[in-house]
Structure formats: structure tokens, C-alpha cells
Amino acid sequence: MEKYYHQYKCLLEYFVTHLEYVQTESKTIPGYKKYIEPILGDFITTGVGYKNQAIQTQISDWSEYGEHQVCINITCSFGSYMTNQCYLNWQGTWFNTRPEWDKSKNRIIRLYLSKQAKATAKSELSYSLSELGLFDNLPPNDNLKKFFDLFESLIINEEKHNAMLPYTNLLIDNKNLILTGAPGTGKTYLAKLIARELGATEENLQCMMVQFHPSYDYTDFVEGLRPFQKDGETNIGFELKRGSFKDFCVQALENLIDSQKSTQDINRDAIFKSAYYDMIDKIRNEEIKEIPLKSESMSMEIVDVSDNNNLILKAKDSETGKTYTVSYARVKKLSVVYESMEALDSISNIDKAVRDAIKGCNTSAYWATLYFLYKNFMQNRRVEETVVERKNYVFIIDEINRGEISKIFGELFFSIDPGYRGVAGTVQTQYQNLIEEGDVYENGFYVPENVYIIGTMNDIDRSVDSMDFAMRRRFAWKEIKSNDRLEMLDDLGDELKEKAIKRMQSLNDAIEKTEGLNPSYHVGPAYFKKVLLYKNNPDSMWSDLWEYHIEGVLYEYVRGMDDVKAKMDDFKNAYNC
Questions:
Q1: What is the DSSP letter of 389?
Q2: Do 188 and 135 fall into the same domain?
Q3: In sequence order, which residues have a C-beta less than 8 Å from that of residue 298 and are 6 or more positions away?
């Protein structure tokens, strides 16, 4: 990197000197004697470097950066070179270094980066010439290094983005994608990179990964009954709990619904939600024990709060013990129709009015709860205005073929079909009759349009056959070959990476030539990345990698074949090429 920093400093100094000289023809500008005078007889004023015009030769000593090249482009506009059409650019991109002029003095005062073809699109990073240490005859300073690092990172990030496009486009078009291929090709890591490209990470809760295995079932994935025991009680009961995928879909659906609302509706929802949960907190702390009905002489006693934050009420002093469920979703729905205490007070027939609004029963309990909420928690409450942006949610299933697919997905075979995303794919789950009133999926489950599924699997896994045709046709399939993910070895450094690739390709050639094996049995770069575990013992690092990580895998490939020892010797010789 120090070499590149030095080159870049010289390049910037030349660029500034060139522009100021063609603008002023002054021989006293900094850099004239170093950069212009030696080439004055052959000096080329203008040209487009990325078109390989002759001007590019004037920066040939500082233009090469590994696989990349920086080009110089000097044009004049109406006789002036004080134009944003004069710039340095990474070849093949619109990532440019451009000048900012003090036109009164015909001098460049700053350099900045732009990320687009539009010359005025500046990056946040710009420096004066003195801040960059140009013409100070000293080694590159920290500002110049930072400037170059950002310049280079724009290229690297763009390359990574472009490399991901075939995968992300495949996922977006099909909704469901399975990455398959030989062991160690980085399928799981690639799945997370694809999710990140869609803005979904585990940190922002828009990406979730589970791993299937023979014991994984419907209750883990969709929903099922789980035992629970209330505080202070000895009896154990059962309650319905969402599985990982359904719970993930609930979050995605909430975002999707909110993204379709106006700012006003979003703010109202936020105020209502904040007030409701404040009330729930006080109820859980037993600060509130009953809710008055419209007739002040009567009230509802609070029995419990469910896991979904629904209220369980009963008439005070009731001898029957009959309870009534008041769900958050329906209280909120009622609030849209009756937006204030005054509106609720004006109702003459509570049963009819509330039933028409929420399409449900327990009308007096709903009226009383909303009135109590307005009176005690909604007064003068404000939230910061916000807009909800639609987000992508990516659910990753690692080792998807290791589970019993039909047992895990159940009736979701229909709803995960790409053609039935959204309400069109609604199914009645096995526990539909137990879903609480007001649950977002109380009328049936479906996969929201903003949910994407990525599965990973090894071609040679003996459980591949468990993927039946009904499941296979619901996914796009992409094979990841051992040479597709060589960038996984970047952490090894150039020298080790080159050696690792040579060994891997030689070994895979030997595997492919072995009768009964094929490219699905290749050993991927993830195995060779493990050589870093033994970097403190350079004399034995490759033999340690073979003995502890690769030899056992290859033995499983050929176990039971004829001439196992001979085959293993061939593999080892190829590995030690």
C-alpha cells in the first residue's frame, strides 16, 4: 500500500500542476520543475486518458494500481481549464478525483471525490492541497492515505456489488433461491452477502438464519403448542407459540403494511401504540386493576394480559367467571372509526356501532378499553414524525435438505410459492383455530411480498433426495462451484492465496478424474482458508491443513471403493503439487 500511496501523491501533484500550467503557463507554480519541465518538449495539453489518448503516457509512472488503472482527462471549455470536465478517474468507472478552483487566483485550492458521472456530485471527503501534503516533499500523510483508501474502496465496493448482481437479481425475480454445490464453496456466507445486498442483516433484524436437521419440525418453523407454567402455579399448561419463520414473517408484514401508510397514519399509529403499551405496563405492574364501563357503576376486572398483549377481562363480581378478550389490533381498528372520547360518547347503540367497526363481539369491553385509553394515556401525547420505508427481509435456511421438508413446511408449500406471495397465498395453518383474536394472521397465514428465502445444500449430501419435486419447483437453483468464490481467500494475502488456489485446483482436478466422483465432490476454498489456523508453523501448515481438515473428507468420498489407498495417495500428491 505504501507504494500506491506514493504513486497517488505524485499523481495528484502532477494533475494539479498540469491544470494550473495549461491555465496560466506560469513556470513558478509548485511542481513545474519536477513534472512539466522534463517533458516540456513533448508536453500534451489535452486528451482523454480512458480512451488511451497520448496524454495518458504523461502519468504512466503513477497510473497502475494492481488490476486497476487511473486515467487522466483534461478538456478545456471556452478556453478555460477551470472545469469539472478535467478529472482523474478509475478506468471503466465514474469514480473521479476533481479539482475545486479559486478562479480569482487561477489556482486549485481543493480536491474532492465524486461518485457519479455528474461532476457536481461530491463525496463527503475533500481536502485542501496543504491538508493532503502536496508539494511538501514528505512521505504521504494520513489525509492523503484516507483520500486514496476511500477512492479505492469505491471501486472495491462497486466490484463486490456487481459480483453480487447475478445472485440478487435471481433472488428478486424468483423470491426463493437454493445455493447448491460442493462442500466448502462458501454457500452460507454467500447467502448472507446476498441478503446484505438487499439491505437485510441479522443486526437490523431483517435477516434470520436457521439450520435444518432431522429433529427440526413444523412447530419449530411455523407454530406449535409449547408447555408453560404461570408464576405461583404448579399446573403446566400449553400455549400456541410461533415458529421462527412465522415470527419472521410477522415482522416483515408489519413493515410492509406500515410502508403503505401516509405519514399522518404512521404518526397516529405510533402515538396509539405508545399509549397502549404504557397502559399494558401499568396493568402488568398491577397499577391498574379494572376498566370502567360506560355506566360508571359498572366495570370490567382485568384478569390477565396475554403474550400478544391482549387484555383478558371479566365483569366485576361476576359469578360465572366468563372472560372477554380485547385485542390490541381490534382496539386500534375501533380507534380509526372513533378518534376521540367525544366520538365514543356520541354513540347511542354501543353494541351495533362497535360490532360494525371491528366485526367482532365483546363490544362493551372494547368501547370501555378505548375510552379508558383515550382518557388516561392519549392526552397531549406526541411522537416524532416519520416515514416507514419498505424493507427486504431474507430468511436463510442452511442445510435445507437435512430436514424432513414436508414435515417442516406442511401447508406452507402453497404459500411459499413465488406465484402466491401475499394474501393470494393465504393458508389455514394446523393450529388456526387457536390463534388469538387480533393476531395479524388470525384469518390465515401468508408470506409477505417483501420476504425472500435462501436455502443452502451440498450436492453430495446423502439427504439430497429428501427434496421432493414439489419443493424443488418452488425454488430457483444456482450451483456454486469451487472457483466461483476465490475471493474468500483474500485474507490469506497474495502469496498464500496463490499457493492455496494452486493446491485446490490441482486437488480438484484429481478428484474429478477419479472414477465415481465428479465436480460435486470438489473441495472448496473454505477448507483452504483454514490454513491461517497454522500460520505460526509455516513449515507444517500445509501438511496440518491436509491431515486435520481435508484428508478425512476425501476418505469419506472413496470409502468402499476399490484401491482406496491408491486413490488417497493420488489426492495427496495432487494436493502437494
A1: P
A2: no
A3: 292, 315, 316
Q: Provide the grid cell at 16.
A: 494539479
**Whole-number Cα distances in Å, 301 to 234, 291, 317, 344:** 24, 6, 8, 21
Please check whether residue 562 lies inside any domain of the structure: yes
CA dihedral 314, 318, 320, 321 (to 10 degrees): 40
Q: Is the dihedral of CA 234, 237, 239, 241 positive or negative?
A: positive
218 grid coordinates: 413444523
Q: Give yes or no: residues 74 and 112 share one domain.
A: yes
Q: Distance between CA atoms of 574 and 560, rounded to whole angstroms?
A: 21
The gap from C-alpha 190 to its chain's centroid, in whole angstroms, comes to 11
Phi-psi region at 362: left, alpha or beta (left = phi > 0; alpha = psi -120 to 50): left
In this structure, the answer to whether residues 63 and 105 fall within a common structural domain is yes
Pairing of the two strands 223-228 and 207-211: unpaired
Distance between alpha carbon 209 and the CA centroid of its chain, in Å? 12
Give yes or no: residues 461 and 317 share one domain. no
Domain that holds residue 501: 486-575
- DSSP bridge pairs for 226: 239
Summarised one tens digit per residue, pLDDT across range 117-159 is 444 445 557 899 999 999 999 999 999 998 888 777 766 666 6
In a domain, 237, yes or no: no
First CA to last CA distance, the chain: 31
Phi first, then psi: what are they for 177, rounded to 5°? -140, 135
Look at residue 329 and tell me if it is in a domain: yes
Which three three-digit cell numbers place residue 178?
437454493
Distance, CA of 150 to chain centre = 22
CA angle 160, 166, 169 (to 5 degrees): 110
- How far from 314 is each of 38, 55, 72, 309, CA to CA, in Å? 95, 87, 80, 16
- Asked if 127 and 51 sit in the same domain, the reply is yes
Judged on CB neighbours under 10 Å (0-12, 13-18, 19+), 272 is buried
Encode pLDDT of 444-489 as tens digits.
999 999 999 999 998 776 554 556 677 788 999 999 998 888 888 9
Tally of domains in the chain: 4
Question: In sequence order, what DSSP letters do the residues of 434-491 get, joined into one string?
Answer: GSPTT-TTTT-B---TTEEEEEEEETT-TTGGGS-HHHHTTSEEEEE-TTTTGGGGGG
Best CA proximity match to 445, nearest among 208, 157, 252: 252
Cβ-based neighbour number of residue 19 at 10 Å:
22
Rounded to 10 degrees, the C-alpha dihedral 528/532/538/541 comes to -40
Question: What's the CA gap between 485 and 527, in Å, rounded?
Answer: 12
Bridge partners, residue 458, by sequence: 181
275 and 314 part of one domain: yes
Beta strands 323-326; 393-398: pairing state? unpaired
Give the pTM.
0.72
Q: CA torsion angle for 426, 431, 433, 434 (degrees, to 10)?
A: -120
